[in-house]
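Listing S7. Sequence submitted for prediction.
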Amino acid sequence: MEYSALVPTLLEISQKASEKILSVYNDASLFSQIEEKADHSPLTLADKCSNEVIIEGLKKLTPDTPIISEEGKNIPYEERKNYNLFWLVDPLDGTKEFIKRNGQFTVNIALIEGTKPIIGIIQIPVTSEIYYADSKSAYKFYNNKHIPISVSNKKSELTAIGSSSHASENEVNFLSKFPISNHVKAGSSLKFCLVAEGKAEIYYREGPTMEWDTAAGHAIVEQAGGKVEGLTYNKPDLLNGSFCCYGLKV
């Protein structure tokens, strides 16, 4: 299969999921429907609606390809360890940002081959921007235009990007190794997107994140010419360790 051929349909699926998310986001009676998951993280109606749209779309697109989703994640490792090709989905990345109503939340869809992401789709519902990697290159889709993106590869006056909702005590020590002159914050997988299009050069994360939080962004950054260290997929435990995303030559 030429995996790049899947991208147009994936863009349609992410757009439909984003529309579902915004229908909840813009309706006060629906927006207030928030539950608490077993790990005490929030679950909104938007998470559920987006997940339904994505799962339905992926099953039609590739009926024989397994799906691991944040909202349907309880697949035993004994079963999924045999997956050579599978979808990894976060139907609403940045649920806390969604609840804060700051617009910094995304839809993440990735295709994993072996332990590596080969296709990534990240849509920002509130702006309708989609960042994607088609296994060969990386693009930003906006206003009906597919715009090629690439990392900056700057050598000095670097911009480091970090999380709006999390902070790592080790982050300062790690970043001190680099000539950084600017620090910015962003929520969800937006950090990967900003590295991929050259607006930031380094994103270090101590944790915690899950595989579905990072897979799509991982693919996009690497197809944009960057490098991601510390991440692999379909581990026995889907929790990620520390990682660093570079938009510069290291």
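Caption to Listing S7: primary sequence and predicted structure tokens for the chain studied. The CA atoms of residues 86 and 112 lie 5 Å apart. The mean pLDDT is 91.
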